[in-house]
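User: quick one, fold this
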Amino acid sequence: MYREIATKLVAAIQDGVFTVKLPTEAQLMERYHASRNTIRKAIDLIYQQGLLRRVQGSGYYITNIQLQHKTVVNLSARSLFNSNLHPRNLKSKVLTFDTVKGDSALSHQLGIPIDEELYRIIRLRYWHDQLYCLEKAYHLRSVVPYLSTEAVNSSIWDFINEAYGIGIANSDDYLSLTNLSKEEAELMDLGHGDTYLALDSSNYYKNNGLLDFSHTVFVYPDLALYFHTTNLANN
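Assistant:
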């Protein structure tokens, strides 16, 4: 239960419900109808991800990770809390939503059988009415047999979590600089060969079963990606 409350707390932070600090433990106990121990475990889980800072005698304050003249996207809580990779208020323009069968290249890349059925989604995403990224994703139909058009136009992860009770248990993420292909450049109306930051993500659910793979090219100006790491040797 504490993980569910942690997820709700992170969503409340992302949505601006809590902007400076968390309510008191007593207030959170009443809000989520949970015991003090459960609330403390939920808060500790969020704290470990670098989303909160503890001030002795004052409580937990929300970490301010904004950098001057940059827009910062916090990736730390993504898998642990089943959160979306991107900001929660993005708008989507779906370019492709269909079903394909894995070819030899996808089979090798994802470690799946050839002819595995996949949902393919290609969409442009906008933040504050400005192009944020181009996202190309594949979801295994053996894990997610049905994906709605409404979900593809909004939040795929929210739909999967609500419909199937599936969340990300762990993920492999690779950041790199990429030169836009001709197709990518045309889709975003940018220059062929221009260099942008790309993120390749393989997401897994329980028992390390592959859930999806995505390739995201970020083009939003002055965008910074934030990660938090913990030194386990000092815990």
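User: anything notable?
Assistant: The longest strand covers residues 91-101.
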